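TASK: fixed-backbone design
INPUT:
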C-alpha cells in the first residue's frame, strides 16, 4: 500500500474520532488535541485496503477500504527528555526544560518563533496539522500566518475543520507533495519558518533538487526537520544498523541527510544545529532534529 493511500484512509477515520473528542471538549481544540494524544496511548489504527487491477490499462484501483481503532496496552506517558543542549539555539536565557517527546516539536518551534521575526510558519506533510496547532498554543502568537501542506485530501479537510473551530488561528491548508515541492500563495511573507515531522520519512528518496526548490519558497527561510535520519548520519553503530533495518523494511526515507550535507557543502544552505536520535515518537524509529537556513550571499 502506498503511504499516501494509507494516510488518506487514516485521517478520514481520525476525523470521526476528532469530531467526537471536539464535542466532548466543547470545541476547545487545545483540549481536544490533548484528549487525542491520550487516546493514542491506548489505541492503534488498523486499515484494510482491497485493490484490483484494471485489465485493459493495468492500473491499480481501490475496491474497498475499512479502518478501525483497536485497544493496545497503555503506552503510558513517555519519560521527559532533557533539552539542555538546546541552549545553543536560543540567544536568550537557557531553556533547560524537560519535555515529553510529543511536546518537543512545538517546544522547539515556539522557542524559534519567540526569538525571531517570522511572518509565517509552514509545515510540509502536516497530516491534520496537529503540530501547527500545538505550536500556536505554545507561542500564543496569532499575528503570524500558519500554513499546512499535505498530500491527502482527508488530512487537509480535517485541518480545515479544526481551524474553523479555532477562531484565533490564521491557518490555511494547501495541497503539497515532497516529490515536487511547490509553495502555496503566501502574499508578502518574506521570512518563513518551515518544518517537517515524520513526513519526509514517508518518501523513500527525495528528488535531487528538493532543497533548491524549498529555497525558492521565499526570500528568507529557516527549516527544522524532525525526522528519523540518525542512521543516515552515523552509520556504523549497532543501533544505526537496527534503525537501517527498520527503515528498509518500512520503505522509510534513505537520503534526507546526504542531500542536506550536499546542499551545505555547495553553500546553498547553512546548517545551524543537529541532534541525532534526540527523542522517540516511535519506539524503533528515533527522531533526529536538524535546523538549517537558506544562504543569502
Ligand atoms: C507520520 S504522518 C505525520 C503527520 C504530521 N507531520 C504529524 O507529525 O502529525 C506522515 C504524513 O506524511 C504525509 N505524506 C506521505 N507522503 C507524502 C508526500 N509525498 N508529500 C507530502 N506529505 C506526504 C502523509 O499523508 C501523512 O500526513
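OUTPUT:
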Amino acid at each position: 500500500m502506498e503511504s499516501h493511500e494509507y494516510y488518506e484512509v487514516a485521517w478520514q477515520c481520525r476525523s470521526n474520532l476528532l469530531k467526537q473528542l471536539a464535542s466532548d471538549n466543547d470545541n476547545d481544540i487545545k483540549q481536544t488535541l490533548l484528549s487525542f494524544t491520550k487516546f493514542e496511548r491506548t489505541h492503534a489504527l488498523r486499515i484494510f485496503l482491497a485493490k484490483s487491477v484494471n485489465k485493459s490499462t493495468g492500473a491499480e484501483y481501490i475496491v474497498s477500504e475499512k479502518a478501525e481503532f483497536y485497544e493496545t496496552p497503555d503506552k503510558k506517558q513517555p519519560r521527559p527528555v532533557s533539552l539542555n543542549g538546546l541552549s545553543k539555539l536560543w540567544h536568550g536565557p537557557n531553556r533547560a526544560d524537560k519535555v515529553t517527546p510529543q511536546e518537543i516539536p512545538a517546544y522547539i518551534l515556539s522557542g524559534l518563533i519567540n526569538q525571531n521575526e517570522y511572518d509565517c510558519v509552514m509545515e510540509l506533510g502536516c497530516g491534520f496539522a496537529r503540530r501547527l496547532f500545538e505550536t500556536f498554543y505554545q507561542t500564543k502568537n496569532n499575528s503570524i500566518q500558519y500554513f499546512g501542506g499535505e498530500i491527502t485530501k482527508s488530512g487537509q479537510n480535517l485541518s480545515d475543520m479544526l481551524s474553523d473551530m479555532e477562531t484565533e488561528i490564521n491557518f490555511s491548508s494547501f495541497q503539497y507533495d515532497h516529490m515536487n515541492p511547490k509553495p502555496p500563495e503566501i502574499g508578502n511573507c518574506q521570512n518563513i519558518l518551515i518544518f517537517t515531522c515524520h513526513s519526509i520519512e514517508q518518501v523513500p528518496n527525495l528528488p535531487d533538487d528538493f532543497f533548491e526548490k524549498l529555497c525558492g519558497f521565499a526570500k528568507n527561510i529557516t527549516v527544522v526537520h524532525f525526522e528519523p535520519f540518525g542512521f543516515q548520519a552515523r552509520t556504523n553503530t549497532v543501533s544505526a544498523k537496527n534503525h537501517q533495518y527498520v527503515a528498509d523494511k518500512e520503505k522509510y526515507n534513505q537520503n534526507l541527510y546526504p542531500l542536506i550535507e550536499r546542499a551545505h557543502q555547495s553553500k546553498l544552505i547553512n546548517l545551524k544545529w543537529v541532534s541525532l536520535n534526540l527523542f522517540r515518537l516511535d519506539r524503533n524509529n528515533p527522531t533526529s532534529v536538524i535546523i538549517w537556513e537558506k544562504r543569502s550571499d
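COMMENT: Residues 3-71 form one domain.
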